[in-house]
Amino acid sequence: MYKRRVRAVHLDVQCGAAGSADGTALHVEVHGPDSAPGAAPAVVLAHGWTCSTAFWAAQIRALSADHRVIAYDQRGHGRTPASAACSADLLADDLEAVLTATLAPGEQAVIAGHSMGGMTIMAASARPAFRDHAAAVLLCSTGSSRLVAESTVVPIRAGRLRSWLTGHILGSRAPLGPVTPVARRILKYATMGAGSAPHMVEACARIVHACPRRVRHAWSNVLHLLDLDHAVRELRVPAAVIVGSADRMTPPVHSRRIAEALPQCVGLTELPGLGHMTPVEAPELVTGTIRDLVTTHIAMKEGA
User: Fold this and answer.
1) Model-level pTM greater than 0.85?
2) Which helix (H) or strand (E) holds 248?
């Protein structure tokens, strides 16, 4: 049975750092070999909107045998407290804080982001700490702009009505309530492929339903107005892109546009029939892509 080796830290206490730029204490977990930074290749995982570090369970389990796996809760999610402000710049601040607190000077990592986590990577693309520590990145099921306009959660023709309905649905202040059979069906329709296994749907539903409704609403407003197209062009490290062909939240048009704009795209993978939750729906493929990026872009640099 898998036994976690995890060191949970709060950046403003145990790591001796100041936390994020505005003082927010981010919950960070360091999984893997009990060794000093740099002794094992590092992977940093940034989860998406309404999720938490639990979303990366399959990747943490598989990679922590021989990698230092660093996962953190975005502000307001999981065990990181909410803040009065929400913005793409704050997402970038938080990622910079995590990198600075958990990696040694000059140490590089593969940074993987799902959905809002991918947007976090894009928002941080020109930041000094990001450029110092990023060897390569993985962008899973994400977009850089027009998120509401191009979502297909509402199954009608694109236009003002669909955008209005989508914005109100995704930005609803209503509590999600308990995880019921109806709730699972709704979440599966909106975020997962039709063939997703029941245990995957259950896991995602429990994670999403645990997100406080005020946090869900506050970050939905940020995503509605998001425009990081310029930041994609600043992402100057090797970048792999993964998307499900049945993704209704960030349809493949987003990933194709990102792949075309990236200075160093090393591959766009479209997964037939899969939805928005690719790290859960295709855990082996996502984990394998991260491993490949580590092998190619960290091991190669160390051996140079």
Assistant:
1) yes
2) none
Closest to 35 (Cα-Cα) out of 68, 1, 12, 77: 68
Residue 157 CB burial class (10 angstroms; 0-12, 13-18, ≥19): exposed
User: Which residue from 218, 51, 42 is spatially nearest to 142, judged by alpha carbons?
Assistant: 51
25 within 8 A of 11, measured Cβ to Cβ: yes
pLDDT digits (tens, 9 = 90+) for 15-47: 323 377 778 899 999 999 876 676 789 999 999
Crossing angle between the packed helical segments 116-123 and 213-225, to the nearest 10 degrees: 50
Q: What is the DSSP string of 25-89?
A: --EEEEES-S--TTSS-EEEEE--TT--GGGGHHHHHHHTTTSEEEEEPPTTSTTSPP-S---HH
Q: Give me the amino acid identity at 89.
A: D
Distance of alpha carbon 190 from alpha carbon 202, whole angstroms? 14
Contact 279, 114 (CB under 8 A): yes
